[in-house]
């Protein structure tokens, strides 16, 4: 069973962590290869509590405008996205746009 915990950055300069078993890492590697070929990929994973989640992967061009994208920080005491000015990560996907839960 692919098991994977992803811990994102709470704020700028904070660490992020990916802790996974071999099965999850192999599936992640395969999903990255799909994203490199087709620009997008989706991978179903599960943390230790069994509550499955989907990891969406997007490959953008080198000249992508990163300034328009919301920052990935999740500590709302440090950063709150400007939803009028910054693009949500949900909006970056084309193929999976209607499948992603907001």
Notes on the protein architecture:
- The strands form two sheets. The chain has a two-stranded antiparallel ribbon. Strands 3-4 form a two-stranded antiparallel ribbon.
- The two termini are about 25 Å apart.
- The radius of gyration is 15 Å and the shape is globular.
- The protein has one helix and four strands.
- With about 100 residues, it is an alpha+beta fold.
- The mean pLDDT is about 95.
Distance between the termini: 26 Å
Give the strand line-up of the largest sheet: 1-2
Count of DSSP H/I helices:
1
Helical amount = 10-25%
Profile the largest sheet. Answer: 2 strands, antiparallel
The Rg value, from CA coordinates, equals 15 Å
Give a nutshell description of this structure.
This protein is α+β, with helices and mostly antiparallel strands. The protein has one helix at residues 22-38, and strands spanning 4-7, 17-20, 40-45, 53-58.
Write the layout of secondary structure elements.
Layout: E1 4-7, E2 17-20, H1 22-38, E3 40-45, E4 53-58
Antiparallel strand pairs: 1-2, 3-4
Features of the shown structure:
102 residues; alpha+beta; two-stranded antiparallel ribbon; 4 strands; globular
């Amino acid at each position: 069973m692919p098991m994977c915990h992803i811990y994102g950055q709470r704020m700028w300069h904070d660490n992020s962590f990916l802790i996974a078993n071999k099965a999850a890492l192999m599936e992640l590697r395969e999903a990255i290869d799909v994203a490199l070929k087709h620009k997008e990929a989706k991978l179903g994973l599960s943390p230790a509590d069994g509550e499955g989640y989907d990891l969406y992967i997007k490959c953008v061009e080198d000249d992508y405008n990163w300034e328009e994208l919301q920052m990935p920080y999740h500590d709302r005491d440090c950063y709150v996205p400007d939803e009028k000015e910054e693009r949500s990560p949900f909006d970056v996907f084309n193929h999976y746009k209607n499948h992603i839960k907001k």
